[in-house]
Structures are given as structure tokens and as C-alpha cells.
Amino acid sequence: MLKMKKAVKFLTALSGVALLSSCSVQQFAVNTQVSPFQNGGKVWGEKTKGVEFKKDWDLHLLGINIRNSDAKKMAEELGTKSYTIESKSNILVNIITGGIADYKVVKVIKREM
């Protein structure tokens, strides 16, 4: 019984670590001299409180684009030519589906030159 409790604690801790590290963040600066992560948050993505941004999502099944966001259109809706594209991929979704599905949240964050 003692070994079972240790195993449960270990698996719970391992699951917690997996959940905390299950995001992959990429940022791309477009027409701006401001470096990415201007508003902090280098691990979990940039904080957008008080900053204009648009959000959309992508879905890939077996590497095929099922739904693709349009960052250029989102930037036009924000009325800017200087922006940062932030893409967050959830590795947990990838693990649960065995790599069949990849879900990404895409944000376009308005920048000043």
C-alpha cells in the first residue's frame, strides 16, 4: 500500500510538471524595431493587459491545415503595420491525441515603431 501511495504522488507530481510546461510560445516581430516580449512573460507568452491585440486559432490534423488564422487580416483590423505575431502550441493536446492534432492560439499584438 505504501508503494502505491508513492507511485500516485510521483504520477501527480509528474502530471503537474507536464501541465506547467505544456506550452510552446513563438513570437515574430513584423515591421517593428521593438523586440518581442515587450510586455514581459517570456515563458508563458507576452502579457496583453492594456495592449491592443486580436486572437485566433489554428488546427492541424496529421500535419494538414484544417483551420488557419490570418495574421495579416488581424493586423489590418487593428489598423497597424507594426505588430508581433505570437503563436502558442499546447503540447498536452499533442500528447493526448498521439501527435494527430496540433492546436495553436495565434495572437497579433499591436506595436509602435
Which key phrases capture this entry?
113 residues, single chain, elongated, alpha+beta, five-stranded antiparallel sheet, 5 strands
Number of strands: 5
The tally of helices reads 3
Low-confidence stretches: none
Numbering strands along the chain, what is their spatial order in the largest sheet? 1-4-5-2-3
Structural class: alpha+beta
The main pleated sheet reads as: 5 strands, antiparallel
How much of the sequence lies in strands comes to 25-35%
Please state the average pLDDT score: 80
Instruction: Give Rg in angstroms.
Output: 18 Å
What does this structure look like?
- With 113 residues, the chain is α+β, with helices and mostly antiparallel strands.
- The protein has helices at residues 2-20, 71-78, 91-96; strands at residues 23-30, 53-61, 64-67, 83-90, 101-110.
- It has a five-stranded antiparallel beta sheet with strand order 1-4-5-2-3.
- 12% of the residues are buried.
